[in-house]
TrEMBL record:
Organism, as annotated: Bradyrhizobium macuxiense
Xref: InterPro entries: Cyt_c-like_dom (IPR009056), Cyt_c-like_dom_sf (IPR036909), Solute-binding_3/MltF_N (IPR001638)
Keyword Iron set for record: yes
Region (Disordered): 293-318
A molecular function (GO) term: heme binding
Domain Cytochrome c: residue ranges: 319-400
Claim: Heme is one of the keywords in the record: yes
Keywords annotated in UniProt: Heme, Iron, Metal-binding, Signal
Biased composition (Polar residues): 295-310
Cleavable signal peptide: none
Record protein name field: ABC-type amino acid transport substrate-binding protein
Length: 405
């Protein structure tokens, strides 16, 4: 199912790893000063820690009893240390800031475990705990195969997910045969059926499937590089600084438990293989000096100007292009490219005008409302209002390619 491509925990190819040092924050005095007030009512039950989570996102979260997922179990462990129970606010998540805005930032929950730890994720609106994990892409193959770097893929058939960093990365290599798959599940199946030699796919799901469906048959080698590996943390709304500091305070003592949870769910947490870098020396600035440019990385760094204003309110009959850009970059960009910059013509939305001329608008509405599920384009009518989609349309109009050819 195409939805598995756009889970909240998956990052677009433009994701950049960050310097972890920035994430280490000192515990603020306020936490200590608040302590007496809190302990005054210590015998009364503290309110549950409310976690926002996707009910169908294993290995990370699920509402299946007995199989809560890695991130929910981490959340439970944190809550327990804080002397609190947990409650859940289930939210069917599509990748993106919209989810965070409608849950965490709308005070539907206190924390979200597993947000990508990037400084500009949602500007100052979201604050983070110390890093809890690394997520990214991995090479999956037979246990006896040497997988120490990209050159070990030479001459092999490699499954890559559609529009993922690995696909972009390997596009530059004529000596590696790419087989495009739509999901990590499909990549594992192709590997198991002998249709490919290696799957270069999203690591958490690969690890989870390897453990639950393939009897740990495969080796899984995490990769590192621009858009291949990033840190995740627990996210809070800006106003929850005291809670964040409390959580940071208990995280170090939870490390063994957290490591055991990674193993339980088969999610790789090991030392990655460095990719796309000439010298394997610079460990501190992952991706910063990448010689291999991953198509979309630079445009993604442009700030989204409207990040905090509620663009929806400004929508008029013609739509608000700035608000539309925010929706686009938060959700559609995952497949269509940040700011609609996309090298693959079939999904280059800057060509809509050229392609459809007077039918551009009707094609937009039909495609976006109903999707083209068989082709990997989801339906959005239950996700965004028509006002929001009108804004997206206004934004797309502003980026149409009007040049020749
Ligand atoms: C999971 C990947 C994915 C996401 C996310 C996605 N799309 Fe698409 N979209 C596709 C694919 C793949 C196609 C091409 C389908 C085909 O081959 O006909 C497509 C096609 C389209 C088209 C028609 C293009 C054409 O030339 O016919 C429009 C318009 C479009 N998408 C808009 C959007 C908008 C707006 C969003 C965000 C709300 C979005 N898409 C999110 C994958 C995606």
């Amino acid at each position: 199912m195409s939805v598995s491509l756009i889970k909240s925990n998956e990052m677009p190819s433009s994701a950049r790893s960050v310097q972890l040092g920035k994430a280490i924050r000192t515990v603020l005095l306020s936490a200590t000063l608040l302590a007496p007030a809190v302990s005054a009512g210590a015998d009364e039950a503290k309110p549950p820690l409310r976690l926002c989570a996707d009910p169908t996102n294993l290995p990370f979260s699920s509402d299946e009893p007995g199989k809560p997922g890695l991130y929910l179990e981490i959340g439970q462990a944190v809550a327990q240390k804080l002397g609190r129970t947990v409650s859940y606010n289930w939210y069917k998540s599509y990748f993106g800031k919209r989810t965070v805005r409608e849950t965490l930032l709308s005070k539907q929950c206190d924390a979200m475990v597993g947000l990508p730890l990037i400084d500009d994720f949602m500007g100052p609106a979201v604050i983070f705990s110390k890093p809890i994990a690394h997520e990214g892409y991995a090479l999956v193959g037979a246990r006896d195969r040497k997988l120490a770097g990209i050159d070990d893929l030479r001459g092999l058939r490699v499954a890559v997910q559609y529009q993922s960093t690995p696909q972009n990365l390997l596009a530059l290599r004529d000596d590696i045969q790419k087989v495009t798959v739509l999901s990590p599940e499909e990549g594992m199946t192709a590997l198991d059926q002998g249709k490919v030699d290696i799957a270069f796919i999203w690591a958490p799901v690969a690890g989870w499937l390897n453990k639950t469906s393939y009897g740990d048959k495969y080796q899984i080698v995490s990769t590192e590089g621009d858009g291949l590996l990033w840190a995740t943390a627990i996210g809070f709304a800006k106003a929850s600084g005291a809670l964040r500091d409390e959580v940071d305070g208990v995280l170090p003592s939870l490390q063994p438990e957290i490591s055991a949870l990674f193993a339980k769910y088969g999610v790789p947490n090991g030392a990655p293989v460095k990719f796309g870098q000439v010298a394997p020396a610079a460990t501190s600035s992952v991706g910063a000096s990448e010689p291999v440019t991953v198509g979309q990385a630079t445009s993604a760094e442009k700030p989204v100007q409207t990040a905090t204003t509620s663009g929806d309110a400004k929508a008029d009959a013609k739509g608000d292009a700035a608000a539309g850009r925010e929706v686009f970059n938060g959700t559609c960009a995952h497949c269509h490219g940040p700011d609609a910059v996309q090298a693959e013509r079939k999904i280059d939305l800057r060509l809509l005008k050229k392609r459809y001329a007077d039918e551009m608008e009707s094609t937009f509405w039909k495609t976006v409302h109903d999707g083209r599920p068989a082709k990997g384009m989801p339906a959005w009518k239950d996700v965004f209002s028509d006002d929001e989609l009108r804004n997206v349309y206004a934004y797309l109009q502003s980026v149409q390619d009007t040049g020749g050819n």
